[in-house]
Amino acid sequence: MTTPNSVASALWIAWLAGWWLASPWSARTVERQPVHAQLTYWAFFWAGAALLFFLAFGRGVLSTAIVPPSSWIPWVGVGILGLALIATGIVISLRIRCQDMMKAPGNADCPIT
Asked: What is the mean predicted confidence (pLDDT) over 58-70?
């Protein structure tokens, strides 16, 4: 039986795989960030990953249910996650297309910021 957690994890893994596969086409870094800025970024990144994928907190405020448990609530979360990933992909592709259009001579600024 498919669970909401397995579907959400599959969505995130598919997104991560697409991000990784698209990395050869990205521009190379011109200047590296200072080490302390990188460490701050990675600390928040891994803390967020732990909160998303692991049951980091078994007790306390984060384990308190806001609404009564139900079988449909996790599937709503999966649907919202899927829609958010699709919307993000659409916005990014439109922004890239707009940047390509701006390179052509005589084109105005991109309305998507």
From this structure: 70
